[in-house]
Amino acid sequence: MSANARQLTFYNGETPVENGASITFNDVQVTPAGANKEVMIAPELSLGTDTYSSQISLVCKSDGESVQMCAGGACEQGKTIKKTLKINGGKTVPLQFEYMATLPKDAAVPKIVCTFEAQDGTYADTKITMTVVLNGENGGIEAIVNGYELYSDAEGVHYNVEGARQLALYGITGMKVLQRTVSGSGVIATGEIPAGIYVYTLGNKSGKIIVR
Amino acid sequence: MVATLAACNDIKTDERFIEVDAVAPQRTVLLVDFTGQNCLNCPRAHGYIDDIVKQYGDAFIPVSVHGGDFGIAVENTSFEDNYIGLATAKGDAMNKEFDVAAWPSGVIDYKGPVLSDADWSGAVRDAMKRPSEADIQLTATLSDEPSAQVIDVKCTVEPKSDFNGQLRIWVLEDGIVARQRNGSKIVPDYVHDHVFRCSVEGREGANIKFSRGIHQTFDDRIAVRHNDHERWNADKLSIVAFVLGDAGVIQAAKVHVTTNE
Fold it and tell me: Three-state SS for B15?
């Protein structure tokens, strides 16, 4: 007789999320509402198990704004939301996790970082986590590069790398506007880089970033 | 020792249910459904309400109170953008009164505990068995005044015993077409029924002494709202009246608003 694996997995759509990973969502839905606007960022996240359990704890913590989560049951809103879930073996439950708010028409949509933690009852070795970044309009394009992180907001271009890496930004004409060796976590202040769209290289990775 | 396994039932745990036979109603039962247009799973609760209405008909009065964290405030309504909010300040106050923290939720006969929608059917059935201490006769008539349409409400309470209670008079509206979240979708033309629109404020908190066999009649006049935030459809309005005692609703009644012809 084989022992149950008893394993939990977060999913982004159909794709399993590696334990401890960070994923980003930039898609903001905006609904006009007179002098206001209703904004919604609604990633399709779910939680699955290979073994039936009625005691799966799920905690979502936001770093700032209130978020909402229903996970198939009653919907709650807040900066910390805790649920106890019942999930059949081999099945998933949609987290029904969103940021939704009514904001003044010209207000910026905030960037929100949420951490999720799930555990099957008292089985501590089933604990999994993930970080979800809801980018809003404050962020540019957030690039996740093999666990490195590079993003831009009103403060500047933030980096978070292991070891020393060469960071370079190129304007749309191909002209290099910045080259710096970066390591660990830090920010390159906005004043150093004019606002615009840039191509970046970070180590041997590349992408696009908007500097505001 | 040889281990044997009996065949297991293939019905999933979350799909098992026990069908409960309806009881003969001894009174009218009120359900306050705490709901919100941005609540993803609230349409499920609306479906449960429809099922209970089919079982008990006029003996069951559901009231959908929009408010709380998932409500869209009437003040945010923009008819130009077809963005219509149904959450009133009174709806928010009722959410706070019962300390509602998750939606959908509900209370039976305006008395805690706050119940998950899955528990409503059984709780309504239990409430139906309790005899009532009063009867209510209710009429609501619409007439045109120079400045607005008004509803004249006449409510007569016929006590069967002595008790102290409060009278509440609410306006409900059916058939409101406005957006509603349903799971991951936004339904722009969802039809909202039995929506709480307003309460006759003068009645709130006023204790009344009711004596056995002595009928008391209460008259109220309610203006039909038509403004930048709310536009009631007079053809779809109802009035709910209930007497509230310490143990919850003693009796409730509902009547559609009719025209005075």
Answer: helix
CA A74 to chain centre: 23
Domain with A152 in it? 143-211
Per-residue pLDDT of A12-52, as tens digits, reads 999 999 999 999 998 888 888 888 888 999 999 999 999 99
pLDDT digits (tens, 9 = 90+) for A190-208: 666 776 767 788 877 766 6
Chain A residues with CB-CB distance to B42 below 8 A:
75
**Cα separation, B226 vs B217, whole angstroms:** 29
Using the 8-state DSSP alphabet, how is residue B74 labeled? G
A42 touches chain B (CB under 8 A): yes
Task: Quote the distance between the C-alpha of residue B6 and its chain's center.
Answer: 47
Q: Dihedral (C-alpha) B186, B192, B196, B197: value to the nearest 10 degrees?
A: 90
The SS3 call for residue A27 is coil
The reply to whether B77 touches chain A by the CB within 8 Å rule is yes
Q: What sign does the CA torsion over B49, B54, B55, B60 have?
A: positive
**Phi/psi-derived region of residue B82, left when phi > 0, alpha when psi is between -120 and 50, beta in every other case:** left
Min CA distance, B212 vs chain A (Å)? 43
CATH code, domain carrying B250: 2.60.40.10
Q: Answer yes or no: are the C-beta atoms of A178 and A167 closer than 8 Å.
A: yes
Asked if A121 and A58 sit in the same domain, the reply is yes
Confidence at residue B145, expressed as pLDDT on a 0 to 100 scale: 86
What residue type is B100 in one-letter code? V
**Is A33 close to B80, i.e. CB distance below 8 A?**
no
Query: What is the rounded distance in angstroms from the CA atom of residue B2 to the CA atom of residue A20?
Result: 44
- pTM value is 0.79
- ipTM, 2 decimals? 0.83
Tokens of A48: 């699955």
| B83 → closest Cβ in A34, A42, A52 | A34
What is the number of domains present in chain A? 2
